[in-house]
Amino acid sequence: MNAAKEILALNRFDATKASGFDAGLAERIARREATFGASSVLFYEQPIEMVRGEGVFLFDDAGRRYLDVYNNVPSVGHCHPHVVQAISRQAATLNIHTRYLNRTVEAYAGRLLGNFPAPLANLVMTCTGSESNDLALRIAERVTGARGFIVTRAAYHGNTAAVTDISPSSFKAQKLASHVRAVPAPDCNGAPGGDIAALFAAQVSAAIEDLRTSGPGFAGLIVDSIFSSDGIFADPAGFLQPAAAVVRAAGGLFIADEVQPGFGRTGAGLWGFARHGIVPDIVTMGKPMGNGFPMGGVVTRPDYLASFCQDTGYFNTFGGNPVAAAAGLAVLDVIEQEGLIQNAATVGSALKDGLIALKPAFQRIGDVRGAGLFIGLDFIDPQSGAPDTAFASHVINAMKQRGILIGAAGLYGHTLKIRPPLCFSMENAEFFLDTLRGILDAA
Q1: Is the overall model pTM greater than 0.70, yes or no?
Q2: Which of 13, 78, 222, 268 sits 20 to 30 Å CA-CA off 200?
Q3: Is residue 24 predicted with pLDDT exceeding 90?
């Protein structure tokens, strides 16, 4: 029986296996462990010291170059010159808290909101996706008068106390909080007749009824519309519509966590929820919003925000500071000017097709899923078809040895999570496919 994996365990360095490292690296790791204690997380069987980034590449302290197929934070590319210049210019001019008028902040708010459908017309800026999701929960509780939330079984939505409660993949041993229900990830392979839309809506409906009868009531369903931590479930486009209808009929709010699928990653517009033809009640954003500069945001209806603010004097000292706004504007510039949404669609489709083409030759490959430049590839035991977590870990570390950085996802950690910067090229995709083929050939 496969055991569920905590999100940070999927690719985590085990400090008890540091024997054999050179003295300098071993000393660095020991100092890191002593300084950061139990919260220290490093990646790979042998950790890397990174010193520089450029586009889709990272460079370690020895000058070795790695293709970054892991990181959605620098969404338009590591250290993109336009973003760096915008941050530097604004930091050299003015950076203040958020209680003054400022044209850069106002310009960003107007431009960002121009990319949302009505009635989503108010923006609250934060510093992180965790803050954004925390605020979204509070708004939903105030609007509905309930406190029960539904998430997927391996969801991750952040790390405040409230948001950890709705992030089952963060748990090592604890059970779900009494006001949270988890439903299975929307996997077509487990749906009768492949109708994942009907199955997912039915599972959400049952969870709503359970919340109502057990006391917390139902405040909302929060999903990352690419279901990244669950193992990446993108298709068929539109399958979230019945679930959204069930949520609204029950008086709850549909919250779209766009930290992972947002800002063009799916190749079908700026937002992941748009692929499903739905308009959420609340949208949350984070990491890629500033290409690595700390910023986040919540977009919602003016009446919902007004209701929340009747009882709560919300403010955020750094959320929406001018430097963050400058970074955000520059990111939107780059996405538009470099055609990165179309690039995600074109290169992502070719990469997905290339992965599917490997399946006949390698029985260890299970399902291949995704949209744009967010693809999941399952590794399975060839005899039983069961998730093969150990082989996924082997591939991740073998990739690193060959100059590619990648991570895992899914309830069992057997899904290769393919999520490069949006400037990923056909040449990069071919290198990735060739490298993976070589690792599979050698297995």
Answers
A1: yes
A2: 268
A3: no
